[in-house]
Amino acid sequence: MSRTEQFQALFDPRGVVVAGASTHPGKFGFVALHNILANGYQGRVFATNREATPVLGVDTVPSLDDIPAGEADLVFVCTPAATNPDVLRAAAAKGIQAAFLASAGYGEAGDEGRRAQDELVALADELGILIVGPNGQGVISTPSSLCAQIVAPYPPAGRIGVASQSGNFVSSFMNYACASGVGISRAVSAGNSAMVGVTDFLAFYAQDDATDVALAYVEGIADGRRFFEEIRAVAEQLPVVLVKGGATSGGARAAASHTGSLATDDRVFDGMCRQAGVIRAATIEEAYEVAATFATQPEPTGPKVAVVSTAGGWGVVTADAIAGTSLELMALPDDLIAALDAELPPRWSRNNPIDLAGGETKDTITTVLEIVARHPDVDGVVLLGMGIQSNQARIEREGPFYPDHGLERIVAFHDRQDHRYTATAAALADELDKPVLVATELAVTFPDNAAVRGTVEAGKLCYPSSNRAVGALEHLWERARWRRHRRL
Amino acid sequence: MPTLSEADSKALLATFGLPVLPERVVDDAEAAVAAADELSYPVVVKLCGDQIAHKTERGLVRLGLADAAAVGQAATELLGAARPEDGEVGLLVAPMVRGNRELIAGLADDPQFGMTVMVGVGGILAEAVADVSIRLVPIDRADAREMIAELRTQTLLGPFRGEPAVDRQRLADVLLGLSRAAEGTPTLVSADVNPLIIVDGAPIAVDALVEVEG
Asked: Which chain A residues have a beta carbon less than 8 Å from that of B1?
């Protein structure tokens, strides 16, 4: 059984067994079964329970020996550590190829636990069964509608593959997926990484048709060189966004040489990421946004950014943000200025950021956006100030005068227009294979705003600030440049 | 861990292509003057030996010596300053080069990732500025170029106080040379090129200290 087949069994099992299903709704053995049943998994679901009491309408059997052979590929193990060797043997005998171990009491629990973990791995190797965990929170796979985890939530389907040394951060990423609408292909909590760790999952994602972007959280690394080699091989094939937890362990480095004393461990890690082509994010939140950007926007072919704004202030702040990056607030070419002169009132900025100067009232936003985005010198666009009219429409709709006084008509008009503007931005990104990012705080303040919906319904991320859009765009460019330098 | 003398450190790194100055190691003041005459003035004279690591702190570096008399006097004083624990010592005579910009470069063994190569902004504020970039050995030219581009103090690499921009190609060559030195010298533990002075845009390893397994 190859590792790839085992991973396939983990993520796309024909059937799942919950070992140690519980009737107590507070126990992992209940929650795991609940989440598998409640989120649309289409394969067969079996459960074991010592008393063979039905749980959530599933008839349980006392042991894995009692389930039919060849019907399940994955066992989700919630039984106590001491019984797990027997669980693995019985599972392997039924043709099960992968076991997710939620059980605790292993490597995280001192020497004895570590010994038990090593023995379990040796047994699994012998049986040809994959162990994920132990002490993990579960596995998600949207192509199979599989939510085999003991935490919430189940995310929308998408193209991001998550592997995390912390189960809770899997949950955090899933929360961001739900909030942003940019979804997940696979997600797994590596737990103690007894048999396979984060880079093994990333290597699978690199080959996985369902996954376009890898998102990883790591804390400890056992073998730095191996980690580097493995993650670089993945990054050569798809974008890898990584966030690292844990303070630097200073002092390990010999302080003998001057240069050595300057080189903190975290700088080594940072340099390693850049060398491997891995995008390192500073926070969980940024990591998700950047992964979502890679999943929904094309990489730019250069650093030149055009900022299109309906008002001056946003453009100014965004210009400041760009100045602090490797992106370039491009000078507008003459032919682009001339093309915009024809569409905009004479008082438009005639500079980048492109301040539309109220031009939106003349319905020129989509025209201007198209002219800018289609210009061959423009490598990426940031669009600001969308949703203002529909935000006003919201208070009119919710106010005491609606729908009279012509409000019904104007509210519908503004909603339609704002939705159209941002939908156009998304369509241009797809058509031109060029990043076009929409940023507005309405993404978090009033996520049902028409401009936000226009973006989200097109499958894109609506950035909560222009700074964050610029940060995400810089990461796109960083990777594009890394690939270009290496002719990848 | 034992260190190589400055002269031996530079000689080792020079075999991997690091740019060093022509220099002589001599035993006495007379030979120092002869070496200086040959190299042309001004010169630098340093007390040099395997056991001597902190030359500047001990006042064992004499800069800008303009003539034979100055060299002779400095050489005599330096030999007089040698301590018994310095072991075998010599005088290193090298041309005096000037540049307004100092970088640092080096190799260090990271406990997690193994041998690493670094480049950074040097000079007396180096530690406070802490502008460095690091990669794992071996690096290729793309890595070296990116290391240089990653330094925050990019203005220092452009034209500066009447001096041309830093030749990035040559600076990348220094980093590639260090990477090769690490790969080609299994006993190497660390290397510290400090300063790497920018002279007319080109980096020159003016001082170096290589640490090897004992």
From this structure: 254, 256
